[in-house]
Amino acid sequence: MRRVVKLERHRSAVTMAAAIAAFLAEHQLGSGSQRVYAGALRALQEYLGGDTSLAALDERQGAQKFANWFDQRYGQTAPATRVRQLAIMRSASAFWRQRAWLATDPTAGLERPRIAVDRTRALTREQIGSLWRRDDVALRERALWRLLYETAGRANEILSLNIEDLDLPNKRARVRSKGGATEWVFWQTGAALLLPRLMAGRTTGPVFLADRQPTRAVPNIDRCPVTGRARLSYRRAAELFSETAGGWTLHQLRHSALTHAAEDGANTPILLARSRHASVRSLERYARPSPESVARYVAEHDPARRRR
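The structure corresponding to this sequence follows.
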């Protein structure tokens, strides 16, 4: 009687291109994370060659070539960028080792840089207030910025909103969060007054639209069926905010909202619900009172203040 024997795929048969494709297909990443991971890993693939055996990274020469590439590409970047790219490489390496496609960790010799804590990323309430008072800002930008601050949402989440996602009477919307989960974000009166004006009777399509008609093919989900315009891109939205606000970033609106909520006494469960972070540790850098808030607290609790 013949015996059927299952043969394991030899490590040398797995190419860089196949290994990277398998990693990206296995992990259910959000659209933004998918783009970042794919960009980093395909840069490595381009350098080493898509047909190169993944097992070459187990060899001393291959591991050194990988380390040299990483240092050349990310050695002069910001520490946070290097940390993020290193995390991507380590995640992929762990996946490949689990599949027995690699026997060693080619990232083991790469050092994780220390990131200095920036305690000034949150804007002050006065800075936020001055932004709302500006009368030289277009309606679309005013609505987007208010929505980002009031929801404490991620810029990609808010820019991805369609009108069908909005629940205007209850001041909330469904967003696709990191990892693909569908969650609610909530806003306040400022955004509630601006959104109907922005949509101007439209009942379907992207909430935030580009200024002009697209010059190339756009997926239907990213195109307004009424105006024909495409969804506003993150790049353009970030560019406009930075130009108008003197170098501030869209992420600072989210950061500021969470910091101000913490200063106002919001407890950890509420902050986690608003930020939609998976852990308290991820929330820590947002929930830091500003110097102005600390100064106000100290002044209000000064014993001498009670002596009239």
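The chain has two domains: 11-98, 125-298.
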